[in-house]
């Protein structure tokens, strides 16, 4: 039977994830927790206009009622696209139930990170601030080429919309993966560019460019689905998206 | 001690390879066999203006004298950038001596391929028509992403100089690696473009592009050096460049 | 005083245009005609959450009431992002009032095109199926480079989302501008790519690429604003976006 | 009759220029002045292996003999790919003969620039440190788009081989053309990249990229041929390549 998913968060990213999950036959979206009370008890398939017989009930519960939710509508995995506070709400239930967790929250406080690490002793827990397949593939492939050719020159370039002031977090992770000084990242800011990242390897007579382009900020759906499928069945521990991708790199045979 | 190399071929590619080998402290270029009798017994470092104390003697021998050459000036590995006929000249000596061979010859006759396969039972033998690190990295990385995301769309695009009529062989290999119909490869022909290959993966909200650009047709040096280092010590067998790259993909640790 | 604009159409494109117009101090959005009766008489600034004191009243009128609208709330120019039928609704009023028209409708019937041509004898009328500045700049710049270097090789490449079956109309116009056979356009289809067009010029030792990337299908706002500003004051006639861009190409001085 | 050309300089760039000139039926390469006495009086077609009946005699003269050369083998235009000192050698003869000059010398001393300006009162004189069609087209097209859309964001990015320490001179000129601070140019240095320049225009919902890629450092031939053809017949004055390109931008009709 398809694993039952409980989703926290129903903002832009949450909706994109719900869309992909509902369109996939490999999972069953059991419910979605959102903060606002609007649309309470409606169903996500109906709201998003997707033809699906998965329940996807929209739930707006207070903290004290989460325990009830997990009892009445049990799930096999929790996917969290809400906010830092989400963790505290479901932590006791997933620990007790041994329920795996996929968290795509960008920033956790030091305290919350402590809780995550602690929780990962009891359940398989994936935390990835950028849960897209593309970026995580780029991270791993770049790391590999860096090791194959440590003498090649490398540059990291990122492009974003004009208002984005700081260097992109993804670019920083790419830079770290290839031992490139974060302060040398070339940041291009122009117009409404959603996001482009390039790791360039310069050889004497050839160049390799690994490029990731974001089309919309909703690129998380397929990554979340991938994480759900491959985290289930893993032993307890703290995982990154790169960890889940590792088997595909390790062999030329299909792991799928 | 640095492994001693015997190089066959001193055309454009052969010279580029000799340059990289002489600049590397990890190998010792013992001699170079060329067809023409010009510059007989001069040294390659002197000819190319490279400051090196490796001998790199230029040798122009007739077929019958090759046996003498291998006896008087023994080498630990043979690198072949000559032509299809080269194989026949050194085959008996490398088989008897158990000397590994790196061959970058583009096309072998069916008969010669039979000899290669036969030889590979006695010595480690790498044959790669495109021995660049970049293209072989692209091949393997593309193959992996295809398996991670078989539902993603893929396109293969190549650009070359106007006179190149046929679809590039490298593009065909890339297409095969990602199960893309060779006849759908997009071939762009314009001006003097040396060579550009792109494998594009299209996701619903993101795009990944793996791009290789050739700067000159002499991109083989570093690839040959890599092949030499990593073929030495391998058991007898027929290897591709991708095979040699595999350990780097299999682990996130340095294999060095 | 800023010219008063009457906008027909309030779909995705219409809203993007309204946003740019409201954020510009160079125009005054007087009203917007939409088909649906929802939000009748609300204001666009309020609806879109834009801080502006321009009226931008949302109007849902039946055909017979358009005459009243033009009388009570006169405008200096009409911008049409509605549909083919829009033309018939306002045609008598703009002809009588000598009011310039900017139409961004993709396809008109042969009959409607006849009406357009006829109307253009009375008023300045711009019709552009792709009213973006970027694409029209590319068109003109490509045409020029083609004439400067007719012996250079040229290729036209376009990328779009997988579901787009036919060759893009913009690519066809680019191809015509550089005398490139439409049937040789390289069409790449992958994932969710919004739209990318490239005109590549290949010289023996250099390459020039003119590239346009669409970020969202709402790129029409700045183009429409540009068209409004530069169509006002022109003599009656049928104009293209390229026509309006011509003065900037003709001189190195600012025309603005 | 095809205009007769006297070429100064027979280094890499000079040879590339001679090749293009000899392959063109629109000009006649009369002679080439080189510093070295090697190959004196041989012909360039023979030396470069080009099938041409143009003389292209290789001349190695001392300064005092230049007067004789211009008398015995008169030319209609001088093309200078030699070095700063070249100017002094032919200056008296071109002034007296009213012979147009195309100079592609990168750097002149202040004194030499004074001489150039003075000479340009007597003859049409084109001076362009980067005489390629591609770069000069990019300069002018960028300048125009900047004026069409002064509110668009702009970025200038250049890529070169690792050893190139300073920001590229071409990138600086592009930056000046679009009012972009030279110190914000993004300079990428990796491997053996010959040279890539990009002017990126960022709009809210679209991006325009004007890209020039150098394939080899010999891209000057077609630019020089273009300069020769279009400088002949011009009144005395100091011209840039952009000046010669202007007529193509000014009209949509062919000027050629």
Biggest sheet record of chain A? 7 strands, parallel
Please state roughly what percent of the residues of chain A sit in beta strands, choosing from under 5%, 5-15%, 15-25%, 25-35%, 35-45% or over 45%.
15-25%
Helix fraction bin of chain A: 25-40%
Number of strands of chain A: 11
- State the CATH superfamily name of the largest domain in chain A: NAD(P)-binding Rossmann-like Domain
User: What's the Cα radius of gyration of chain A?
Assistant: 19 Å
> What structural class is derived from the secondary structure elements of chain A?
alpha/beta
Q: Kindly report the average pLDDT value of chain A.
A: 91
Q: Which second-level CATH architecture of the largest domain in chain A applies?
A: 3-Layer(aba) Sandwich
Note the overall shape of chain A: globular
- Strand neighbour order, sheet with most strands of chain A: 3-2-1-4-5-6-11
Report the span from N to C terminus of chain A. 18 Å
What is the class of the largest domain in chain A in the CATH system? Alpha Beta
Number of domains of chain A: 2
User: What's the SSE pattern of chain A?
Assistant: EHEHEHEHEHEHEHEEEHEH
Q: Determine the most extensive contact between two protein chains.
A: C-D, 50 and 47 residues
Number of helices of chain A: 9
Give the assembly state of these chains: homotetramer
């Amino acid at each position: 039977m398809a694993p039952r998913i409980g989703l926290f968060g129903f903002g832009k990213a949450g909706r994109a994830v719900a869309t992909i999950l509902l369109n996939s036959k490999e999972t069953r979206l059991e419910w979605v927790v959102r903060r606002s009370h609007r649309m309470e008890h409606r169903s996500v398939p109906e709201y998003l206009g997707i033809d699906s017989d998965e329940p996807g009930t929209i739930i707006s519960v207070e903290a004290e009622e989460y325990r009830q939710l997990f009892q009445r509508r049990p799930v096999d995995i929790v996917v969290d696209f809400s906010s830092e506070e989400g963790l505290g709400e479901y932590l006791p239930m997933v620990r007790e139930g041994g329920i795996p967790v996929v968290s795509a929250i960008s920033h956790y406080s030091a305290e919350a990170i402590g809780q995550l690490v602690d929780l990962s002793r009891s359940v398989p827990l994936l935390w990835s601030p950028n849960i897209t397949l593309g970026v995580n593939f780029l991270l791993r492939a770049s790391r590999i080429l860096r090791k194959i050719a440590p003498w090649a020159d490398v540059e990291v370039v990122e492009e974003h919309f004009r208002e984005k002031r700081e260097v992109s977090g993804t670019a920083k992770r790419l830079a770290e993966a290839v031992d490139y000084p974060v302060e040398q990242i070339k940041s291009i800011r122009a117009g409404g560019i959603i996001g482009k990242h390039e790791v360039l390897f310069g050889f004497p007579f050839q160049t390799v460019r690994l490029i990731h382009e974001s089309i919309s900020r909703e690129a998380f759906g397929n990554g979340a689905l991938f994480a759900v499928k491959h985290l289930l069945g893993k032993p307890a521990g703290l995982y990154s998206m790169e960890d889940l991708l590792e088997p595909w790199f390790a062999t030329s045979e299909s792991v799928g």
